[in-house]
Amino acid sequence: MKKFNRLPNHIAFIPDGNGRWAEQRNLPRIEGHRAGIESTRSLVRYLSEYRIKYVTLYSFSTENWNRPRAEVNSLLKILSESIENEAAELHQNGVRVRHIGRLNKLPQHLKQSIEGAVELTRDNAGMNLNLAFDYGGRTEIVDAVRSIVSKGIPSHDIDEGLFSSHLYTADMPYVDLLVRTGGELRISNFLLWQSAYSELYFTKVLWPDFDIGEIEKALAAYSRRQRRFGRV
Ligand code: IPE
Ligand code: IPE
Ligand code: MG
Asked: Which pLDDT tens digit goes with each residue over 136-164?
């Protein structure tokens, strides 16, 4: 294993570029998503060996519902199959699977796979693997406001800590390193609050090609960053 002088406690990924990977090979886009799941598997295994405590994967955004129905259905189907297939091994490795986002609009099969994996692994103390399904940063903030208002919390009690504890990520640390593959330079509504002070790492590499060598480059870049948080 490679040595890094500093590792992030929480890494979040925007795994982009599956569709382009497939198009470059004249394959249907869904084959890109399948290949993307394969890179995710090895990445998760690698990061848990490094004892990274929190890993968040942007799996399906609130905006992804705007894709063609057929792509949405087949994507959500293979994602739910892969959760089913991986749950036992994740459990063996002490990984705790969690979900961030809204569950109610997801197809029943996916909801069940997520809930099953969350339940199976709930007492594990290893890596927290957050699956962001039907996740949107703005929706999350709206949901937090709703929850605060519905509890009747008085305005003078609302501060950053209280607000943060009403987000989907309530008890989790903020994001240290945010990685986006696929070459786009944007956040696409991911973890808006939690990445306010994250180190950003963008690469043109498409997600299915994002292998161990590529994650090592991202970790090496992170270990060279100087985090200042406004100080000198
Ligand atoms: C990212 O790959 C995966 C999801 C959004 C689920 P894309 O499907 O966005 O791939 P590109 O950006 O079209 O290449
Ligand atoms: C972000 O990728 C969402 C996920 C990876 C799940 P998109 O491909 O959907 O983002 P945009 O549309 O390029 O902003
Ligand atoms: Mg994309």
From this structure: 999 999 999 999 999 999 999 999 999 99
Average pLDDT over residues 199-228: 98
pLDDT for 49: 93
64 has catalytic annotation: yes
Q: How many structural domains does the chain have?
A: 1
- 223-229 mean pLDDT: 97
**Considering the domain boundaries, does residue 150 fall inside one?**
no
Cα–Cα distance for residue pair 9/38, rounded to 1 Å: 23
The answer as to whether 120 is a domain residue is: yes
Q: Which protein residues touch ligand 2 with a CB less than 6 Å away?
A: 14-16, 58-61, 64, 184, 186, 188
Which residue range is the domain that position 103 belongs to? 10-137+175-224
| pLDDT tens, residue by residue, 104-129 | 999 999 999 999 999 999 999 999 99
Residue 1's pLDDT is what? 84
3-state secondary structure of 130: strand
What letter does residue 231 receive in the DSSP assignment?
-
**H-helix or E-strand spanning residue 200:** strand 199-202
Q: Is 104 a catalytic residue?
A: no
CATH number at residue 60: 3.40.1180.10
Which strands make up the sheet holding 177-180, listed edge to edge? Answer: 96-100, 128-135, 54-61, 10-14, 177-180, 199-202
Inside any domain, residue 197: yes
Distance 173 CA to ligand 2 centre (A): 23
Question: How many whole angstroms from 146 Cα to the centroid of ligand 3?
Answer: 30
